[in-house]
Amino acid sequence: MLAHGSSAWCLNPTFKMKRKLSSIQRPFLLHISGAYCTTTTAALQTILGIPPLHMQLQFEARFTSIYRLRIPLPPFITRTQLHDLEMKATSWSTDPSEHLKPNQISFEDGEAYIGRRDIINIFTDGSKTEHGVGAAFCILTNDIWAYQWSAKLNDNNTVFQAEPTALHEAVIYASHLPNHNTSKIHVDNRASTMASSNSKSTNETARKIFKILLSNPRIKVSCVKAHAGNISNERADQMENDATQHGQPYSHTKLPKPHIKGLFRKRMLEEWQTLWKNGDTGRRIYNIMPSVSLRPTNWIREDVIFFSQHGPFPAYLKRFYLSDSDYCSCGGIGTALHYDTECIYTVSWHMRKPGQTSNKNG
Fold first, then answer.
1. Closest C-alpha to 100, from 239, 232, 195
2. What's the whole-number mean pLDDT along residues 294-313?
3. Which of 2, 84, 190, 219 ranks highest by number of CB atoms within 10 Å?
4. What are the φ and ψ backbone dihedral angles of 19, each rounded to 5 degrees?
5. Direct distance between the N- and C-terminal alpha carbons of the chain, in angstroms, rounded to an integer
């Protein structure tokens, strides 16, 4: 509810707005942590790994502005251009009456077609490793490797983008083959096959594949088990692994949505870290946790009270000119707070001596 319309009112929040959002967030932080109500909001946010509310809403506003509203952001936030982002496609890619033939897309194992010499078998693969993102396909004709293609994608691309990219390039190659040749493209990723067979897919690459298959019924796509000992599929897998390091750069695949979200999340953490470092509250917690993180600590309620020193601790009581004692002037045994030798407050677990009557004014 709070994030509704945040791109219109929280892209550049004012100081008054930040304070209002902080007052809304504070009760939730207190209830989650179980800390004393005097514990600072900044300390609770760091302990629980929850950024300030205005930063979370600003994160949503920035993402909506650039990804949905197509409004460029200042360079100090991100240097990513609008034309570099992969956008979600809308509406139908073709007329609803047009659809693929039943035998063009098969989700069953297509290994039985590999041995046939009257079919051109094409094997595709894509993956993401610590070295980068790669896509490749190879063609087997009469037990001879007739052609192979590989490319290195942007390191920020995802594996789901690499798989459709390899399938898209394979479909383009098969569409230029003579009309009397039947091509069978084997894909070891079921998700990309399903996306390519859906005319309402929101992926632009999947829509391009669908249109090419629609105009070329002789091209068929089927699934094949990955790492099942198939020599042809293993060759395609080896090619895309090599492409992650030595492949030709491929710039047609745009940056995915998780990439821009990661940039904004990193920016939010940097701003939160600066606010936490330069703040004037929660310094006791800052000495223990100088860096902020989205991961909460494993502290229980007693740990939060102890490390924040907001509770029955001398360092906290001295702020109010109070001291703790084992005995109360009313005769009770337990923890009592005194001011000028007069009992002004006794904690809930205050105990009376045997036979002593209750002193309501104690």
1. 195
2. 89
3. 219
4. -65, -40
5. 47
Q: What is the full DSSP assignment across 109-155?
A: E-GGGTT-TTEEEEEEEEEEETTEEEEEEEEEETTEEEEEEEEEE-T
In a 10 Å sphere around its CB, with 0-12 CB exposed, 13-18 middle and 19+ buried, how is residue 291 labelled? Answer: exposed
Q: Is the pLDDT of residue 304 over 90?
A: yes
Burial status of residue 254 (CB atoms within 10 A of its CB: 0-12, 13-18, 19 or more): middle
Helix (H/G/I), strand (E/B), else coil: 196: helix
List pLDDT tens digits, range 185-214. Answer: 888 888 888 888 888 888 899 999 999 999
Higher-confidence residue of 154 and 354: namely 154
Q: Give the pLDDT band (50/70/90) at residue 230.
A: low
**Between residues 25 and 112, which one has the greater pLDDT?**
25
Sheet of 219-223, strands arranged across: 105-109, 219-223, 182-187, 119-129, 132-141, 144-153
- Kindly write down the DSSP assignment for every residue of 277-319, as one continuous string: HH-SS-HHHHHH--S--SSPP---HHHHHHHHT-SS-HHHHGG
Report how far residue 362's alpha carbon sits from residue 353's, in angstroms, rounded to the nearest whole number. 14
- Report d(CA 186, CA 195) in Å as an integer: 15
Domain boundaries, the chain: 1-85+255-296, 105-254, 311-353
CA 330 to chain centre: 58
Mean pLDDT of 270-286: 95
Q: What fold, for 105-254?
A: Nucleotidyltransferase; domain 5 (3.30.420)
Task: Place 301 in a pLDDT band, splitting at 50, 70 and 90.
Answer: very high
CB atoms within 10 A of CB 29: 20
Q: What is the reported pLDDT for 96?
A: 75
User: What's the pLDDT score for residue 310?
Assistant: 84
The answer to whether residue 356 scores a pLDDT higher than 50 is: no
**Which tokens sit at 83?**
């034309």
Give every CB contact of residue 307 below 8 A, 6+ residues apart in sequence: 284, 285, 288, 299
Using only the alpha carbons of the chain, give its radius of gyration: 32
